[in-house]
C-alpha cells in the first residue's frame, strides 16, 4: 500500500506533528509513504527517512496551481490513496487532483467550525471518506448532511515518552526568570482569537491581587502577539505573564507547570492538552468541540463553559489552593494518555480506514 499525504502547514504545530506520527507508524507497518508539503516545511525534515518528500509551493485557497503540482506527483508515484491532512487550499485542490487522477481520497478534519450545507454538499463529494480527530467534529459533519458511513473518528495521539521525565525545577526557574515560590500556569496554543488568551489575562488580573507569586507562561506564536502583549502591559501584568514564543524544547518544560489553562472557544481536540496530560499536568479547559474528549471532567481536569471568565477564575483558584487535587488530576491524566491516545492506536485507526476505502473502490 502506498499513501500520498498532503500537509500544507509550514510549522511543526499539532496537526503536522500528527501527520508525522502517522507516517512513521505506517512505515513501521510496511506502508510506503509520500509527503507533499510546502517548501521549507518543518515536517519534511521530521519524516525524510520514512517518506518520499516533495516540497512545493502551497499558497492557500487561491492557489489553483496546486492541482497540477499534486496531479504530477500522483501520476509519477501512483499512490493507492491520497490523504489530505489540512485545509488552506490543500483540501479543495488536493481533492480535485485526486478526482482528476481517479485516485481514492481521504480528508482528515481537525476543526469543529461549521460549514454551510451548500459548501458541504459540494466539497465532500471530492472525498471517499473523512477522518475526524474527535467525535465532536464527526457530529458536526453529520449535522451538516455528510452520511455517517462516510465519516470515522480516529482521535489524535501523543507520544508520551518526551513528557515522562522529571523537570529540573531550578533550570526552569532560571530559563523563565521565575521566583522560587511561583505557581506556574501555562497555555500552549497559537496566538489567535479562538484559543482564549484574552480570558486567561482577565482571570489572572483578578487572581494576581491574592496570589502575587502567580506566573503565566504563554507558549506559542501568532498574529495576536502584539495585541495580547499590549493588553498585559495595560493591566500591569508584565511581571506575571510572559510570552515565550514557539518552543521546540517544550517537552523539557511542560511537566514543570502546575496548571495548564486552555480556555478555547473552539477546538477540534487539543493536542497540547494530551501533551500536558502525558506530563501529568492538571488541565482547565472548556466544553467546546472535542475538548471534553481530551479532558475527563473532574477526573483529569476541570471543564468550564467557553467565554466564562468567572468560572475560569474560580477553577484556577481551586487548583492553586489545592496541591493534592492538582496531583490527583495530573496523575489520572497521564494514565489515560498511556492507554487511550497512543500513536499505535491512531496509526491502526487510519490504516483501517485506508483498507475500507480500497476494498470499497475495488
What does this structure look like?
This protein is an alpha/beta fold. 43% of the residues lie in helices and 17% in strands. It has 15 helices and 13 strands. The protein has helices at residues 14-28, 42-47, 65-77, 90-100, 117-123, 135-143, 169-176, 197-207, 225-234, 250-253, 271-278, 291-294, 309-321, 323-340, 343-361, and strands at residues 2-6, 32-38, 52-56, 81-84, 105-109, 129-132, 151-153, 183-188, 214-219, 241-245, 259-262, 283-286, 301-304. The strands form two sheets. Strands 3-2-1-4-5-6-7 form a seven-stranded parallel sheet, with helices on both faces. A six-stranded parallel sheet has the order 10-9-8-11-12-13, sandwiched between helices. The protein is elongated, with a radius of gyration of 21 Å. Residues 14-160 form the Glycosyltransferase subfamily 4-like N-terminal domain. Pfam families: Glyco_transf_4, Glycos_transf_1. Its EC number is 2.4.-.-.
For this structure, what is the CATH class of the largest domain? Alpha Beta
The Cα radius of gyration reads 21 Å
Mean pLDDT: 95
Distance between the termini: 14 Å
Summarize the biggest pleated sheet: 7 strands, parallel
List segments where confidence is low: pLDDT < 50 over at least 5 consecutive residues.
none
Pfam families: Glyco_transf_4, Glycos_transf_1
Domain Glycosyltransferase subfamily 4-like N-terminal: 14-160
Organism: Oxalobacter vibrioformis
Protein name: Glycosyltransferase
Q: Topology of this protein?
A:
Elements: E1 2-6, H1 14-28, E2 32-38, H2 42-47, E3 52-56, H3 65-77, E4 81-84, H4 90-100, E5 105-109, H5 117-123, E6 129-132, H6 135-143, E7 151-153, H7 169-176, E8 183-188, H8 197-207, E9 214-219, H9 225-234, E10 241-245, H10 250-253, E11 259-262, H11 271-278, E12 283-286, H12 291-294, E13 301-304, H13 309-321, H14 323-340, H15 343-361
Parallel strand pairs: 1-2, 1-4, 2-3, 4-5, 5-6, 6-7, 8-9, 8-11, 9-10, 11-12, 12-13
